[in-house]
Amino acid sequence: LFVVVPSRYDAFGIVAAEALAAGKAVVATIHGGPPEFVPHGVHGLHTDPLRSVAFAATLEKMLRAYPQLQKGAREYARRFDWSAIAARYEELYGQAVR
Predict the structure, then answer these.
(1) Residues ≥6 apart with Cβ < 8 Å to 83
(2) Is the pTM of this model over 0.85?
(3) Which tens digit of pLDDT belongs to each residue from 45-75?
(4) Cβ(8)–Cβ(57) under 8 Å?
């Protein structure tokens, strides 16, 4: 149904990125990298895994909101595909040379 990433620390969050690419909504930790690319309330929800009551409330919210949150997740994740990233770097480097 959806993916939960309750890490206490996650430098990037490849599991969350792969879940989005598979078209799944994500409950992501507020620690580390996932909040940078899992848009809260759009394709996922953020939570503090160290606060069990808040964590449980977020899971309940996800169960209610899942149909809306998973829409467009796969398309959104394409922004993080290596070919898309390479194209953005080429554009950035091209602007720096000018």
Answers:
(1) none
(2) no
(3) 999 989 999 999 999 999 999 999 999 999 9
(4) no
